[in-house]
């Protein structure tokens, strides 16, 4: 369908006052008839759209704490935008250029904006966050609510139990339902943005400029996920209820495990950026005059070396387009089909494309790699928070400034190697194999970079540490401690953590820091010397390993990203020419269905199995408070290792198939031909598989 459009535009461009531009003198001065301005707008839109899509992943642990979600539920939430996207992306190849593409992109951007605003609604309809879990909503936070009180004062825990009403449960379900609805809307709105934008640029840019424009577009938009993590790092430093702070402020630091950052603010900022980027699309025409000249600096650099090649390509493309007009692929014949005919034809073309062994293996390898990326992008911030006792803000900063830039560098390096070395299929497969193997080797030391969970009184006891803490220590028997309270304190001398000051036997608040955020408790019967002990969890003994860990993760990501471009080349050269457009679409669809949708749920379920203490909310299991760090590290990194191994196995099989095909070619060339008749018989069938052979 782009070819059909392109021919029309070329013809009208050559004839002054063509049909597509009835008043060329009126159209030329308009900035909305410039393909360069469209590229500028589209780069900004895709940047903002990827920022809003990736922002939830940067604040996933914060959303879990705020609304009491398990990692499995939060993983499903993160993957839910793929549901709406996958359901509609197939029809993009059907509609193609039938529709007003810029306007449809604008409508999609408006849906993305609405989805971003809808994601913030749970914050505004929920009651203010109470980190002390006691008292009514309009009362200030109570520092003494978690102290050790005599058994006769049991009514202190009544308010938290009385808050469990039918209304509370309905409100929780409403909040979660709104977030799932917003994620679905986000996926639906994202459908037309990238495909229609790329096809619009390719249709109306000069043939020589189109690759440069698309390269600029991809280079700008790949910064979107990095900016999402950077935005998350900034927003999570702010308190969640910054718009409705309690009286007297808060007595929390960002290192406190009860801290919840302003997760919702990033969605508002991203949605505002998408809304601004959507405005110009309603002024772009359905068709604009095709760009009539090549960029000067591009021509100066490449005219001498590539002019003959370009002329040859143009001639061959014209020849190919004129040879078999009936044998165009589904993408070309789609405009002539009705919706029902398109739905009937699509499964047959899908099965025909999947019969190519190279295509199938490359897609499977990319599914494995995408599963690894989806799991890491969603839960790596949470893993770093738990494993190394760092804040959510710092975890996002490390990912946004280290991992994602190095992954982008890896993609660029892979493209340069394919271009400069002019790698054929065999060498592309070798490069993919080496990149995957190197990434796998870099992930091995990660299994040993971590430490066990520190000792938690009544919950977790390290086997190699001195015994002496029973399930319920006798030192807190006089106290009446609420079972659902969470206000951890740390005995820094022994490295033992207690769920609340009550569980440590503390009876009073003894000291506050000058900024009133760091609180200390004293008269603690379970602590040697009676304290004081600071509020908050004990620091990890291996927090110094976070930077070496992230450097290894980032280097592994960069090496794995080198496979991106060569694997695409294997796909493009592994299917018939008329099926290339659809093959790329099928590849993206299978990645979404088999990787981006299930992988966050799989990783979240694996993380949930390592939990040693669940918070309870109205009798249901809510957020996990403590994990077994060794199990968490082994299972999370084990899943990553499993997917990398699957990708390595696929590339190994690809190389074996390519080598076998090369051997068969060599034997056919060495066999002497028995006669002219046999040669004629052999030459016929050889031409047909030549297109589908890699």
TrEMBL record:
SUPFAM superfamilies: Kazal-type serine protease inhibitors, MFS general substrate transporter. The keyword Cell division does not apply. Keywords: Cell membrane, Disulfide bond, Ion transport, Membrane, Transmembrane, Transmembrane helix, Transport. Residues 1-25, 666-694 are annotated as: Disordered. Residues 469-528 form the Kazal-like domain. One of its GO terms (molecular function) is bile acid transmembrane transporter activity. NCBIfam families: oat (TIGR00805). This is Solute carrier organic anion transporter family member.
């Amino acid at each position: 369908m782009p070819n059909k459009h392109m021919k029309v535009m070329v013809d009208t461009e050559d004839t002054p006052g063509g049909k597509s531009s009835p008043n060329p003198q009126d159209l030329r001065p308009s900035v909305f008839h410039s393909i360069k301005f469209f590229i500028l707008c589209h780069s900004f839109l895709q940047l903002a759209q990827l920022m809003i899509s990736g922002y939830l992943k940067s604040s996933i642990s914060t959303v879990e704490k705020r609304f009491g979600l398990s990692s499995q539920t939060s993983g499903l939430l993160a993957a839910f935008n793929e549901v709406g996207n996958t359901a509609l992306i197939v029809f993009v190849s059907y509609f193609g250029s039938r529709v007003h593409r810029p306007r449809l992109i604008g409508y999609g951007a408006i849906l993305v904006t609405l989805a971003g605003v809808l994601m913030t609604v749970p914050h505004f309809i929920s009651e203010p966050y109470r980190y002390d879990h006691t008292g009514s909503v309009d009362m200030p936070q109570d520092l003494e609510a978690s102290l050790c009180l005599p058994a006769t004062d049991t009514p202190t825990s009544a308010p938290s139990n009385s808050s469990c009403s039918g209304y509370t449960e309905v409100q929780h379900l409403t909040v979660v339902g709104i977030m799932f609805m917003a994620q679905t809307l986000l996926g639906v709105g994202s459908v037309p943005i990238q495909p229609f934008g790329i096809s619009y640029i390719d249709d109306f840019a000069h043939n020589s400029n189109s690759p440069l424009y698309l390269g600029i577009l991809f280079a700008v938009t790949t910064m979107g996920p990095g900016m999402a993590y950077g935005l998350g790092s900034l927003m999570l430093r702010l308190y969640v209820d910054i718009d409705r702070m309690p009286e007297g402020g808060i007595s929390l630091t960002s290192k406190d495990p009860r801290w919840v950052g302003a997760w919702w603010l990033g969605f508002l900022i991203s949605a505002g950026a998408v809304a601004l980027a959507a405005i110009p699309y309603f002024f772009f025409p359905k068709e604009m005059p095709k760009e009539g000249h090549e960029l000067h600096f591009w021509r100066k650099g490449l005219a001498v070396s590539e002019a003959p090649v370009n002329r040859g390509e143009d001639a061959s493309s014209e020849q190919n387009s004129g040879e078999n007009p009936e044998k165009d692929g589904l993408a070309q014949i789609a405009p002539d089909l009705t919706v029902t005919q398109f739905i009937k034809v699509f499964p047959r073309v899908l099965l025909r494309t999947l019969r190519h062994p190279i295509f199938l293996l490359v897609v499977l390898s990319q599914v494995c790699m995408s599963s690894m990326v989806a799991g890491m992008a969603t839960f790596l911030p949470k893993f770093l928070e738990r494993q190394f006792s760092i804040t959510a803000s710092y975890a996002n900063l490390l990912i946004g400034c280290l991992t994602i830039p190095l992954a982008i560098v890896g993609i660029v390096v892979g493209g340069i190697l394919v271009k400069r070395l002019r790698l054929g299929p065999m060498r592309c497969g070798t490069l993919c194999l080496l990149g995957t193997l190197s990434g796998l080797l870099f992930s091995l030391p990660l299994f040993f970079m971590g430490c066990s969970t520190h000792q938690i009184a009544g919950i977790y006891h390290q086997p190699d540490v001195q015994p002496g803490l029973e399930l319920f220590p006798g030192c807190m028997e006089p106290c009446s401690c609420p079972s659902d309270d969470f206000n951890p304190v740390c005995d820094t001398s022994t490295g033992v953590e207690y769920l609340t000051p009550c569980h440590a036997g503390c009876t009073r608040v003894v000291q506050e820091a000058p900024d009133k955020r760091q609180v200390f408790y004293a008269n603690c019967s379970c602590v040697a010397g009676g304290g004081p002990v600071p509020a908050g969890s004990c620091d990890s003994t291996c927090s110094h390993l976070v930077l070496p860990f992230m450097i290894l993760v980032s280097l592994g990501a960069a090496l794995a990203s080198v496979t991106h471009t060569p694997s695409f080349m294997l796909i493009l050269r592994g299917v018939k020419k008329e099926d290339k457009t659809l093959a790329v679409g099928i590849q993206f669809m299978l990645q979404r269905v088999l990787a981006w949708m299930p992988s966050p749920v799989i990783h979240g379920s694996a993380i949930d199995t390592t939990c040693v203490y669940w918070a309870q909310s109205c009798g249901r299991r809510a957020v996990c408070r403590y994990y077994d760090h060794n199990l968490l590290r082994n299972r999370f990194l084990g899943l990553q290792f499993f997917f990398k191994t699957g990708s390595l196995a696929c590339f190994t099989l690809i190389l074996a198939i390519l080598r076998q095909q090369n051997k068969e070619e060599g034997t056919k060339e060495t066999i002497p031909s028995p006669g002219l008749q046999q040669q004629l018989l052999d030459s016929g069938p050889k031409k047909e598989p030549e297109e589908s052979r890699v």
